[in-house]
Amino acid sequence: MTKDVSTSPPAFWDKVAEHVAAQVTPALKLAPRARRPIITYLRNLEGIARRECVSRQTVQIIASGRHILGDRADIGPADGPFSRT
Question: What gap in Å lies between CA 39 and CA 27, rounded to an integer?
Fold first, then answer.
């Protein structure tokens, strides 16, 4: 289902859209409560992306996946490079 991406190579970030879609698409069929683990995973992934990835688009893709699943939480450091994403 999910994997640890805290030390993912740059190639992982190049395919993040496919990875997020693979997490979000099946979760849309689940009840909101059952989506929580995936939302938590995407929150963590977004935090890592904000620290390690150089692409604003990557952060936006992950945030969009969370929002599609119903998560409206703000993620990431307020003073980070993508703090206004």
Answer: 9
> Residue 40: CA atoms inside 13 Å, Cβ hemisphere, count?
9
Euclidean distance between CA atoms 5 and 63, whole angstroms: 16
Structure token pair of residue 33? 């409560």
Question: Distance (Å, rounded) from C-alpha 69 to C-alpha 17?
Answer: 15
Do residues 81 and 52 lie in contact, with contact meaning Cβ atoms separated by under 8 Å? no
Alpha carbon distances (Å) from 30 to 24, 45, 68: 10, 20, 12
Q: 48-75 pLDDT, tens per residue?
A: 999 888 889 999 999 999 999 999 988 7
